[in-house]
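re: ur question from earlier - yeah i can do the single chain one, its not a big deal. heres the input i used so u can compare w yours
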Amino acid sequence: MTQVKAPARVVVLISGSGSNLQAIIDQQEAGTINIEICAVISNKDGVKGLARAHNHGISTRILNHKQFDSRESFDKALRETIDEYTPDLVVLAGFMRILTPEFTKHYLGRMFNIHPSLLPKYQGLHTHQRAIDAGDKEHGVTVHFVTAELDGGPNIIQARVPVMEGDTAEELAARVLVQEHKIYPQAVGWFADGRVKMVDGKALVDGNPVTF
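and the output i got, formated as tokens:
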């Protein structure tokens, strides 16, 4: 008899609308990725992502970073809250916090982020406008492992979109977002199936180093 693998336990961190969270929830409920979202944690109250989680019966927690006197104390409380759920994977889905090295080390190799650029291009903010200003012909999105370097962990998967003549940052962002909703659930599903791992600072998919 073939043994069915238990779903990977996932905790998702958000700060806003949670559209990537919704994409992952949809794939979980469709049965296309073998995960269980155990909790959604937000550093802001009243955001749409929390309502999305409630609508699907997912446990939510709010940890307001403004109630902590330092980044270190917030990250410590956040880590303790996450670990209550014993996750296999922590997913940053629009979580607008710079994390301390101690925090990222704790989840090294089991924390993902999605960033709206073709990393290592355009780490940080305003990526769409920066791509337009640079005259780039293509732009995109990257899912990567999280390390202490901001948007600097090893890349797992990318999707590319054309930059059209006359594009605004908003138009380009909308085109990128469509691809975000495709590749983030895909990467999470790969992790759940044991297909993606971080080894010696590199991302491996099916045992092969990821190169772009």
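Strands lie at 8-14, 35-42, 60-62, 89-92, 111-115, 138-145, 155-162, 196-199, 202-205, 208-209. not sure if urs matches, ping me
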